[in-house]
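User: C-alpha cells for both sequences below?

Assistant:
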Amino acid sequence: NGGTFTTGTGEVSFNGASAQTIGGTVATTFNGLKINNATGVSLNQDVTVNGTLALQSGDLNTGASILDLASGATVTSSGGDVVGSVRRNHAFGTGSNYAFNNPNTLLNFSSISTSGTPSVTINLTKSAPPPSEIAKAVSRVYSISSSNITSFTANLQLRYKDEELQTGMVEANLRAWRKQGRPLRWTLQPS
C-alpha cells in the first residue's frame, strides 16, 4: 500500500496460484481479509484486520511483520494458518475465545488484571525444535508473549495438523512442553 487504501465494510481477497505479497510503504487495515492461494501470501508491512480473517487456502506468512486482530475480529480456516506473529492489542473480556493464528488457536481468560492496554502475541513457527532439544516433536512451535498483563488465569488451545506428526507419534501420547528458565530448557507441562 504505497497509495491510499480506505477500509470499508467489504472483504479483500487474495486469490491465485503463485505467491502473493501484501506490501507497500505503510501498514494497511482491512475489514475482511481472505487468503485463497495454496502457495501462500506474505506480509511486507504490518496489517490489521477489523472483521474476519478467512484462511480459505494456503498460509499467510508474516515474516518480520505483525498481523493485528482488532477486538471484534474473528478467524475462519479451511486448513490455512498465519505463520508468524499475530497480536491482539485490546481489552480482553473473561469467558470469551480469542482466536490467533487459526480458529483453533484460542485464548480464553477466566481472570485478567492489567496495567494499561493489554497485548498478547502468538508466533507460530512450522518446524520442530532441534532433535538435540526434544527427540520427537510435532513440527509446530508456538511462542507466546504479553504486555501490560499483571496476572491472569486462562485456557490456551493450540492446533497442529496430522501431517506435522513425525513417524511413529501417537496422538494420545502427545504432551505440551515449555521452553523456560536460565539456562533455557524444555519442561513438560501438566496435562
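Moving on to the next sequence.
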Amino acid sequence: LPLSRARNPPSGSVHSLFSKLSCCVYWCFAIAPSTSPSVPTVERMEETRKSYHSELEDLRSLVVRLGASVIEAIPRATNVLLSGDLEGADYLVQSDDEIDARAHDIEDRTFEILALQAPVAGELRQLVSILKITSDLERSADLAVNICKAARRIYGKEIDPVLRGLISKMSEQAEQLFQAAINSFAENDAA
C-alpha cells in the first residue's frame, strides 16, 4: 500500500482504521527512534552510564584534593599557634572560604547525582560516603581556623615547653590519621 494512499484512505472503513494503525506503527518503529531525542537507544544509555561513572570519579578526586588541602592546613595551623605567626593565621582564615566553597560544590554535585541517577548498592554507598567525608573535612578546616583565631587571642604570650611538645605531637598524629583516611578513600580500601 503506498504511503500517500495510507494517509488518505476512505473514512469509516476497516481499511481506514488499518491504514491509520499501520502509519502509527511505522512512525513508532521506523521514524521516531531516528528523530526523537526522548527515545533511549543502547548507545545513549551507554553514553549516559559512562558519563555517570566519570562524574563519580570526578567527585572522588575532588574529595581527595579537598582532603589534601585540609592535611596541609594542620601543620600550618600548628605552626601559627606555636610561633605566633599572625600573617599565617590570616592566610588560613581567608583560605577557609575557598575550602567551604569547594565542599559545598562537592555536596551539590553529589545531591544532583543522587537525584538524577538514583544509584543503588555500592554506588549509593560511595555517594553517601562522599557526603559524610566532605562534611567532616569542611568541619576540620573550620577547626584549623579556630586554632588560628586562638593564636591571635594569645599572641605575645609564651607557651609552656611541655605543652608545645604535646601540641606538636597531636598535630603530627592528626596529620597522619587524615593522610591514612584520605589514602584509604582514594584507593577504595575499606580496611
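User: Anything stand out in the second?

Assistant: DSSP finds six helices and no strands in the chain.
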